[in-house]
Structure formats: structure tokens, C-alpha cells
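As described in the Methods, two query proteins were run sequentially through the folding procedure within a single session, without resetting any intermediate state between them. The first query and its resulting C-alpha cells are shown here.
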Amino acid sequence: MPGGGGARRLPPVNETHHADGRVELVDTKAIEASPLYNHDLAPVPVAERKWTTYNYAALWISMAHCIPTYMLAAGLMATGMNWWQALITILLGNTIVLAPILLNSHPGTKYGIPFPVFARAAYGTFGSNLPALMRALVACGWFGIQAWIGGEALHTVGLALIPGWADLLGPGFAGHTTTEWLSFLLFWGLNIWIIYEGMDVLRVVENWAAPFVLVMTGALVWWAVQEAKGLGPLLAQPGKFHSFGEFLPVFIPSLTAMIGYWATLSLNMPDFTRFGRSQREQMVGQVVALPTTMFVFAAMGVLITSATVIIYGEAIWDPVKLVGRFTSPVVVAISMFTAVVATLSVNIAANVVSPANDFANAFPRYISFKTGGLITGLLGILMQPWKLLADASGYIFNWLLGYSGGLGSIAGVLIADYWIVRKTDLRLEDLYLKDGAYRYKSGWNIPATVATLLGCALAWGGMVVPALKPLYDYAWFVGFAVAFVSYVALMRVAPGGARE
């Protein structure tokens, strides 16, 4: 019984185990006939796993160089931190989240499987929809946030180039003009169009989008230093916390929110590492690129936000609104074009690939990648991103901190199952079979579901029970620890649940 952590089994006849540890199927006919299979979820043959260290580094650089990353650092400044407090919080958060990212990347490279298929080992062939759809809903929220930011950029271009643009179509509603809503829907529609028609075009654009954003942000840093009369005044900006006792109550939920920022990718990195040429290459690429890129780009956001306090008398944490204050239409148009392109590339890579696969996992025979992308876009609107971005505290303490508890609980179960219970040993073919080793009880592994719900209950309990509020500040940590420990314990006292 491999699920119970006993002696290692002999490889099934239909599996080829390569010397570097990677596994592939000899014959895929059995899984292709299964209702749990479709082309987008299929295991990647070893010959087609070609991503190198450079590819993974480039992936993280392109995803980290985006406006929400800038707003992350700027948002910490807006809540009262000084520059070094904000940067330490971001660096520490990204270093911590790198651990679950790497642990969950391993099965992708070893077996060539995406996240929702990997989740079938722990949750069951049907139960895997629980973590997959929880992750997908968070991605829908991020899709909406990125679409709103892109819409803001289009709206800012309109303000710079078209006289009277703001009131051209009337006052609008919910605190936003009609042209703001139109800009949002135009950018949202552009995303959907690319999902259906232009993915090849987007891949070409992605190659230069991230460097272009870096150049634009570098230009903003130069402007900030010039306007603030040097780096000295920028770094001298004091925070509002004058003691450790004042800082700690804000630092803890902020650190958890930083982890929450990439807690999404800590689950679904197998969607990308399934294409990896080796474990070493995917690990090195991620370790080199994620913490460094986030730190450098966040530092730029910190410097620019410090400058806005000096120049405008307030911390402007949204770079789109900051550029909107510039008077040159050419500068505004070029800057916002960059923002639009970058937001498009990040949105498709980070917020469409995963939920499209997750929705496809729920109904493999009926939902394709394109249909899953459309569902993602529609749910992104329903999650009202304009409210999530209304202020810095809502973005950090409600959105990022809130969902981190649920994703931490899922990460706890996945890591405990793969590394502790199964010791990285999965039956590749059975992950795609309706009546295979991972069917459990009607497709559900009860210990995994119970552990996830326990983690979520304690992580989110502070939202409704005042006595549990301190646990909510540590939401990701609480969810991860409770789910991890309870899953291992439940699998030991109920071995029938793990029987393969």
C-alpha cells in the first residue's frame, strides 16, 4: 500500500522511469478513453518537456514585473510603513512562499501533470475539484483586478488624448464614470479575444512586455529622484510606527498577505513545471528569479511612492493614477500602453492558464481551455474588482490576507500527501482512471476534505469570532499547519481512506 508510506512498489508495466527521476506512460490508450481525460490535462511526454532554467526565470520575471506587485509595496507604504519596513516584509514573505512553491513544483516535473490532476492523488478523482475550484475562484478575482487595472490605463489614455473624455458618456454609477466602465469592458473584452484567437500573438508580446515595464518603472524612479531632490529625502520619509509594539500588529497580517500574493502559484506551479527538462533547472530558475525580481521591482515602487508624499503631499499607491497626473499626453500614452501590454501578458499567464485547467478538470469532456477562460472572465466581473482596489488596506488586508487561509489549507494537504504519506510515489495512469487507485470513496478522499475544511475554519474564524482574530492575521500559516497535521493524523487513523 504505497499511500500508507510502506515499502516502495515496483513501477507499473505501463510506466517508464527515467534515470533523472522523471516518469511517463508507455501507452496512453487507457487514459484517453477515460472521462477524466482531455488533451489539456494529459501528462506531458518526456520528449516534450523542454523548459530550462532560463524559461522559469523568465516566467517569474514576466509575472512579477506587473502593476499589482508595484501596488503591493506602495500599499504597505500607504498603510504607514517606512521604506525598509516595507522591503523587509516583501522579501521575507517571498522567501517563505518559495518553499511550498518548490515542494509542489516537484510532482509537475516528475510526472508531467498539471495541478488539478496532481490534486487527485490527495483529494480523489472527484474530490480534486474542491481545491481546483477554490484556486480557480481566486484566479477569477485576480483576473478581474488585472482587467480593472488595464481598464484604468485605457481610461487614462482617453483623459490625456480626448478633451472632455471623463464626462463624455455621462456620470456613470458606483462612483465611476461611464467612460471608466467602458474602458474596463474594452480591456476585459481584449483579454477574452486573446484567449479565443490570439494566444500566439501574446507569446510574442510577452518576450518584450516585462523589460518594457521595467524601463517605464525605471523612468518613474528617475523622475521621483529628480523631483524629490535626490535619494536622501526619499529614504528619510518616516513611517507612522515609532515602536516595535506599534509595528507588529500591522507587520504580521502584511507578511501573511505577501505570502498570499503568490500562494496561488504555490499550488498550481505544476501547470508550468510539467514542461521542465529537469528538477534542478526548474528549481534554480525559480530560486534565482522570484525573490530577487519581487524585491527589485518592489523597491522601485517604494521609492516612487515616497516621492509622491514629498511632491503631492499624499502617498499615491496606484501607478496608473500617478502617471495620470502628468501633463504630457505623449508620456501618458506611452506609459499606459506599456501598462496595458504588461497587464495583458500577466493576466493570461497567471490568471487564465490555471482556472481554465481547473474548470476543465471539473467537466473534462465539456469544458475546454477557451471555455474555461470565458468562465474565468465572467466570474472576474462578478467579484467586483473595483471594490477590491478601492484602497490599499482593502487590497492587502481583505483580499490577499483573506484568501491566503484557504490556499494555505490546500497547500498543507498537498505537501503532506505527496512528501509524507506517499513519499513522492504516485501511480501516473491511475490519476486519469475513474475506477483507479485514487477513486477512494466515490471519488473523494475524506481525510483530505476534512483537513482542508478544518484549516479554513480556523484560518477564517477570526472574521466572525472576535476571539479568533489573531488567527486570521496568520491565516496562511494557520491554514497550512492545521491542514498538514490533521491530514497526516487522519490518514494514519483511517488507513482505509488511503488504500490503493
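Immediately afterward, the second query was submitted; its sequence and C-alpha cells are:
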Amino acid sequence: MKTLFEDLFFLKERIQDPQMKERLESLQSKIRKLRTKEGVKGLLQHKKIAKVLRDMAYEDELKKLQIELIKMQNWIYENKKRLMIIYEGRDAAGKGGAIKRFIMYLNPRKYRVVALPAPSDIEKGQFYFQRYFQNLPNPGEIAFFDRSWYNRAIVEPVFGFCSEDQYERFMKEVPEIEHALIDDGIILIKFWFSISKDTQQRRFDEREHNPLKQWKLSPVDKQAQKMWDKITHYKDEMFSRTHNSYSPWIIVDSNDKKLARLESIRYVLSLIPYEGKENTKVNLHPDPDVVQRYHRKSFKRDI
């Protein structure tokens, strides 16, 4: 390897063309990365060099963003702010994986992940929002909702878990309730992780054949492909009736899971005015090709 670097240096010193020099410098940088522990590990797993380098670039960018998330969490805690992030999307859209990367290095005393099971018989007789209200963020806390009260907007009507009256009541109440929460000081972000039908099927196949991921497949998941068009109908209704200026839906193209993780983190960081943000060296502007506000006339991403 030393001889290789000597040869590259020899060529670099003798080449006059600026473009060729630039390509040599790029090659040197890639070789240095491949010599690291992570690079060697990837090569030993028989990954292609291009894939190893992409994975390393992703991990490097992710760590930089996670450092900013720690700064953001400290600001929220010190200023007694309340941040609530809702993650919605079709099955296998990557919601859980995105949350995992968000919280990886956060202080566990200052955040909660809320992933509620199916309601009990007692909860079914309560005010629908009651069990979610019990999990709203406290001052200085972040609450990550892995699915939310929006189950009643899509999953429940699609699979017959609620009546038409219950569905209509929810759709009328939720904008007013979210408006009240925001007026009370909660910072609310609503993500929809969007995937294509083919991507969903491919991820289901991966789960089915991977013993470590089979637990992720539920009876409802297995019906998702058959119910695709019905889910699309209720998804469109949800966007049309619950998207507004104070509580917009933020659409994340999640066909590339790693890109979706990076850009959703970037979006949150771009919104919160945490201390030290102006001095960061990482890009905090989300890619508009990956993250965008829902627009009634233009959104057709996962249909």
C-alpha cells in the first residue's frame, strides 16, 4: 500500500493537467478510506468498493448530523421546549429505522419513543386521543411517535377497526386538537415516509427470508400489498383534510432508506433554533428532492 501511495505521489508531481491532478487526489482519498477499520471490514464482507465507499460516506454524514442532534436536544432541555415528531407511512417504509438513527446518541432521560400496541378493551371505551395524550412530551423532552393517532385515518378504516362515524369524528377533531397543542407550545412535526409498491414488496421479501427481521412481519403487513389502492385512498383523504399551514405533512421519499434518514434528520435540525447551529460545518438544508411539504395538486409519489 505504501508503494501505491508513492506511485500516486510520483504521478501527481509530474502531471500538469488540473483535472488529472484532481482525479488523483480523489483516488488517494478513497484509498485512505479503504485502509481504515470500516473500509477493511466492508472489503472482507466482499462488498464492491463503490458500495463500501458509499456506506462510509453515509456513516460519516450521519455522525455529523447526530452531533447536531445532541446540541439540539440540549437546547430543548435547557429551554424547557417540547418537541413531538410523528412518523407515519406505509408498512416497511423505514419509520423505525429512521427513529433508531435519530436517538442513537441522544440522552435517554430526555426523550421517549412512543409505539403503542393495539388499544385494550378499556382504551377502546375512552376518548380516542386519551392514550396518546398521556405520552405527549414534557418540558425539555422530545417524543418520537412510531405511528400515532393517525392510525384512525388509515389503518383502522382500511381494515375495519373503526366505524364510519368514528372515522369522521376523528377527521374533524384532529386539526383542532393539533392546533390546540401547537398553541400550548408543543413543536409538532409530522413525517410521512413514502415508498413505491415495488419497494414495499422487496422489503417484505427481505423480512420474510431474514430470521432476524421476521418479527417485523404482522398479519396486517401481509395484507398491505393487496390493500394498496384502498390505503392510497385513505392516505389522500388524510393529507387533504389534516394538512394545513400550522401543522403540515412533510413527505420523505424513503425508497432509499439511508438518504431518507439523513434528510429527515436534516429537516428537523433546520427547524429548531438550537445554540451553535450557525457554526456547524455540516449541511442543514434538506434535499427538496427527498423532503418536501405536501402539496395537494402535485403529490403522487408512492402511487
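The two ends are 50 Å apart (CA to CA). We note this only descriptively and draw no conclusion about the first query from it.
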